């Protein structure tokens, strides 16, 4: 518990996380693009977590969590259920620490993602593609192996790790008026909001979410947890519900949550690809998509956007009809 | 004419070009990727001209050429025929210099490329899509306007400009054993070979070319100019023949020219996109494609590759069947 009555990593914990993961993950670059800034009438700075290890910010939290464990804990390994970037991130971090990683993946996971986990030495256990099956399979695995569960976002070590992206951003740019991040389970957003609060208190944090998965938007408005039900957004990293640890931090430190349509996500994603010559996944494009829709007043302001990742299926780009 | 009897920019001319274009084009980053280096058993460093202004190295030569002109010459403007990156690069450089750019483009040029030229204020004149029509239309235009023609590669100011990419590369990396560049008309390659010769003389320069447009390869082997006839490679920047100025420089300063198949170009392009999260056009992928085919002995060596550009049609990616 911190001074506000909520459990949240403090500034010292975030700085410790940054020191712990230094050399184990990338310090990613901040890029600007004259055409995009001109188009929006603001100065936009992109923190490029698409260039991060495993192609997403998830490497930060997983590395911080794994390297926070004791030697005794590491001996039994770590485990999680994930169909996405956290699975790779945890497998990689465990391999760096010389530990085993047990990953429960739904049986419909993409072949590429399963192979990526195995490439890092992760042991994959398949289950039915339901949340219940994922949780019961993981519980069984945890029982059998004694491995430590590392949740993808509802974990203070993960939140502190994800917070380091914003710590880097505010540490190397002139003061920002606004920082934007996408929101799914809220690990990146809560970490970003904490880092902005501690290290750049005049900066407002605005989250962006797809209309088709607007549970965080509704939870924030109603100040009451609303689960994500049947989300169909192409931004597959943002389909999850907020966590019991991330939601209170978001309520306290995030200024606003805005939404965007699916066509805007495609437009923003394509704009970043064409103008900046970098690959970002749909989730990364969500903040820019909301700005293209005029959802935040940024005229003349300096706006940092965290590009969450670049893992995209090159055979199924959203602007190409199959 | 230099000391060898051929006309080629000297080291002072290349340094002058670098000073002339500084602040008008980007000093592009050099990126590495652990997975690609591991795969090839060598240390590969990528000079990222895909991040250059107008998305290609062409901005260097065009900017150097335009800013080399006298005030009197600039008053009448510049002209060229081009369906590709040189057209945009020249239009942009002219706009920066407050001069007019007259661009002859074949009537089947892509709408995007025509719009890009116009976005920079270039005046487009369409012609039939044959080399004869392009040249006669340009001659007419030159006659009428008095504009100075800036050829895309067979021009010493262009060669000196393109040479600055290699100058930057060797200036900021530990000594390289090999530098690779793709070859089309030879502007980038001849400039690269000159810069390596002057500023990093122990470095060998190896060019790469698609098998389906292997005129430079054959010219180099036969030491006699062979024109490019009906080239069908997807690497559209590499379909042109060598120039009378570029070929002698290449013969003198390039160690070898190697070729690669079209499937290898797709594989290399996709590898760069997936692993490095950056967009490169097919021409950029040609050196890596040749390395994937084992066409050069690079084991344990430090190899610089110039990624020539990132202008790619996102609606027609080569690995997606229409």
Short structural description:
2 copies of one chain form a homodimer. In chain A, 44% of the residues lie in helices and 15% in strands.
Description:
The structure is a homodimer of 322-residue chains. In chain A, strand 3, helix 5 and strand 4 (101-106) form a beta-alpha-beta unit. In chain A, helix 9 packs across helix 11 (246-253). The model of chain A has no long low-confidence stretch (mean pLDDT 95). In chain A, the strands form two sheets. Chain A has a six-stranded mixed β-sheet, sandwiched between helices. A four-stranded parallel β-sheet of chain A has the order 5-4-3-6, sandwiched between helices. Chain A is built from 13 helices and ten strands. With 322 residues, chain A is α/β, with parallel strands linked by helices. Chain A binds chain B through residues 29, 50-51, 55, 270, 273-274, 277-280, 310, 314-315, 317, 319-320, and chain B through 29, 50-51, 55, 270, 273-274, 277-280, 310, 314-315, 317, 319-320.
Structural topology:
2 copies of one chain form a homodimer.
Chain A: H1 11-21, E1 30-32, H2 34-40, E2 43-48, H3 58-66, H4 71-76, E3 78-81, H5 85-96, E4 101-106, H6 111-119, E5 123-127, H7 131-145, E6 148-149, H8 156-172, E7 178-182, H9 187-199, E8 204-210, H10 215-222, H11 246-253, E9 256-260, H12 262-276, H13 282-292, E10 302-307
Parallel strand pairs in A: 2-10, 3-4, 3-6, 4-5, 7-8, 7-10, 8-9
Antiparallel strand pairs in A: 1-2
Helix pairs in contact in A: 1-8, 3-5, 3-8, 5-6, 8-9, 9-11, 12-13
